[in-house]
TrEMBL record:
Keywords, ordered alphabetically: Cell wall biogenesis/degradation, Lyase, Signal
Cellular component GO terms, alphabetical: outer membrane
CDD domains for the chain: mlta_B, mltA_like_LT_A
Keyword Metal-binding assigned: no
Residue ranges of every copy of the Lytic transglycosylase MltA domain listed in the record: 155-310
Listed GO biological process terms: cell wall organization; peptidoglycan catabolic process; peptidoglycan turnover
Record-given protein name: peptidoglycan lytic exotransglycosylase
Protein species of origin: Sphingorhabdus pulchriflava
Length: 411
C-alpha cells in the first residue's frame, strides 16, 4: 500500500513534504451517497510507559544497530489487548516468508534468526503474547521515544465509466513516464533516481498536478475509473490506495502504480502558514477546501505530485512486503530501524494504538527510529481515527532471542 513514497501518515503527509531520494518516494445515475463525514475520533487518553534510559549514540547513525539498543522488559509482562495481539500474531504469520528471505537493512537480524519462530507459528494454538514471549525478547532502539500517526484505506464514490456525477479521471501509469537511475551515470548519485519524460532530445519533468487535472492526459486511454469528488480523490491519492464505491453497489479497489516524479507539498502546513486554518488534521483541511472550492482547487494544485493507479484484485491492500496490511495490526516503519515483519509494542499517550503491531509497510514520511504509522482499515471509524492520529510515548521491538543475545551480550 505504501511501498512507493506514500505510506501515509496523514497528519504528517498533509503538513510536510515527503523526504528521501529525488523521486518523492455503465448506465447508472449520479452518486446518491455523500462523502464520508469529515470528523475525527475523540482521542482516548492514556499514560504511556516511559522509554528506558539509554546512553546517547556515538558516531554516525545509519540504522538501528548504530542507534544503540537497550534490552527491554519481559514480553509476557507487557500490557496488551488480547484481541489486537491475536491480529498481530496472524500478521506475523503472514509475514514469515518475507522475514526469512528479506535483507534486513536495520542491521538487527538475519533471515535465519526468525526460523524457529516462523516454524512454530504455523501450528501455535496458545495465546498470542505467550508466543511472542517464548520466541522473542524486547529491545528498545535508541532513545525509544515513539511518534505515531495513522492511515486508512479510503472509500469514495466512483465509476468504471465516465457518466454524470463521475467525471474526475483516475489514470493508470502513462507509457511515456520514465524512471532514470542516476547511479548509472555517477557513483555520487547511487541510490538516487528521477522521473520525467522525453521531449525531443531533452529529458524534462513530467506534467504536474494542475496540468493533469486540467486534462493533459485526456484522450490517451489511460482512464481506469472515474471519481465523483475531487477532494475525496485528492486524499485517496495521499493514501496511495483505496476503494471506489460503484453506482451498482459494487466495490473496485485501486492501488498505487506510479507517481509523476514531482515533489510532494503538504497542503496542511501551507494552509496553516497562510493563516487559513488552525486545525491541521485531515478533517480541518477538508472543511476549508469544501467551504472555499475555488481557492481549494488552487491549493490542492500547489501539491504538484500526482499518483497513478492500477486495479487491485485479491487480498489487500498490500504493504511494502507484498502482503495484505490489516487494520489495527499493521504499521508502516522505516526499514533502516525496524525489520519488516517484526512485531512492535507501543505505549502512547493515546490509548487506541497501544499494544502489539507488526511492521508490514513503509512510507516516504516515515523516517527514523521509533517513527510509526498505524493502519486502521477501511470505513468511517478508520477514517476518523487515522485522520486525527498523533500520539507520543515509547516503543519496543520484538526480535528473536538469538538475535538479541548476539546484539546485547549478557553481562
Amino acid at each position: 500500500m505504501k511501498s512507493p513514497i506514500f505510506a501515509l501518515a496523514l497528519p504528517t503527509l498533509l503538513l510536510s513534504a515527503c523526504s528521501g531520494g529525488i523521486i518523492p518516494k455503465g448506465g447508472a445515475s449520479a452518486p446518491s451517497t455523500t462523502p464520508a463525514p469529515d470528523v475525527a475520533a475523540k482521542p482516548v487518553p492514556s499514560t504511556p510507559v516511559p522509554p528506558i534510559a539509554a546512553a546517547a549514540a556515538t558516531g554516525e547513525i545509519l540504522n538501528a544497530a548504530s542507534a544503540g539498543l537497550v534490552r527491554g522488559p519481559a514480553i509476557g509482562g507487557l500490557s496488551v489487548d488480547p484481541r489486537k495481539t491475536n491480529l498481530a500474531l496472524a500478521s506475523f504469520r503472514t509475514s514469515c516468508p518475507g522475514l526469512l528471505k528479506r535483507t534486513d537493512n536495520s542491521g538487527l537480524t538475519q533471515g535465519s534468526d526468525w526460523q524457529d519462530a516462523c516454524d512454530a507459528v504455523k501450528t501455535w494454538t496458545g495465546d498470542a503474547i505467550s508466543f511472542f514471549a517464548t520466541y522473542m525478547d524486547a529491545v528498545q532502539v535508541g532513545e525509544g521515544k515513539a511518534f505515531v500517526t495513522g492511515y486508512f484505506e479510503p472509500e469514495i464514490a466512483g465509476s468504471r465509466t465516465k457518466q454524470p456525477g463521475y467525471d474526475i479521471a483516475i489514470y493508470k501509469r502513462p507509457s511515456d513516464l520514465i524512471d532514470v537511475d542516476l547511479g548509472l551515470f555517477s557513483d555520487e548519485l547511487k541510490g538516487k533516481s528521477i522521473r520525467g519524460k522525453v521531449q525531443g532530445t531533452k529529458f524534462i519533468p513530467y506534467d504536474e498536478r494542475a496540468a493533469i487535472v486540467d486534462g493533459s492526459l485526456a484522450g490517451r486511454g489511460l482512464e481506469i475509473a472515474w471519481a465523483a469528488d475531487p477532494i475525496e480523490f485528492f486524499f485517496l491519492q495521499i493514501q496511495g490506495s483505496g476503494r471506489l464505491r460503484l453506482p451498482d453497489g459494487g466495490v473496485m479497489r485501486i492501488g498505487y502504480e506510479s507517481q509523476n516524479g514531482r515533489g510532494y507539498t503538504g497542503i496542511g502546513r501551507l494552509m496553516k502558514d497562510r493563516g487559513l486554518i488552525t486545525d491541521g488534521s485531515m478533517q480541518g483541511i477538508v472543511k476549508y477546501l469544501r467551504e472555499n472550492p475555488e481557492e481549494g482547487k488552487k491549493i490542492m494544485n500547489e501539491n504538484k505530485s500526482f499518483v497513478f493507479f492500477r486495479e487491485l484484485t485479491g487480498a489487500g491492500p498490500l504493504g511494502a512486503m507484498g502482503y495484505p496490511v490489516v487494520g489495527e495490526a499493521s504499521v508502516a516503519v522505516d526499514p533502516k530501524y525496524v525489520p519488516l515483519g517484526a512485531p512492535v509494542w507501543l505505549s502512547l499517550d493515546r490509548a487506541e494504538p497501544n499494544g502489539v503491531w507488526v511492521a508490514q509497510d513503509t512510507g516516504g514520511a516515515i523516517k527514523g527510529a521509533n517513527r510509526f504509522d498505524s493502519f486502521w482499515g477501511a470505513g468511517d471509524r478508520a477514517r476518523a481515527i487515522a485522520g486525527g492520529m498523533s500520539a507520543r510515548g515509547s516503543a519496543l521491538l520484538f526480535l528473536p532471542k538469538a538475535a538479541v543475545a548476539r546484539l546485547i551480550p549478557a553481562e
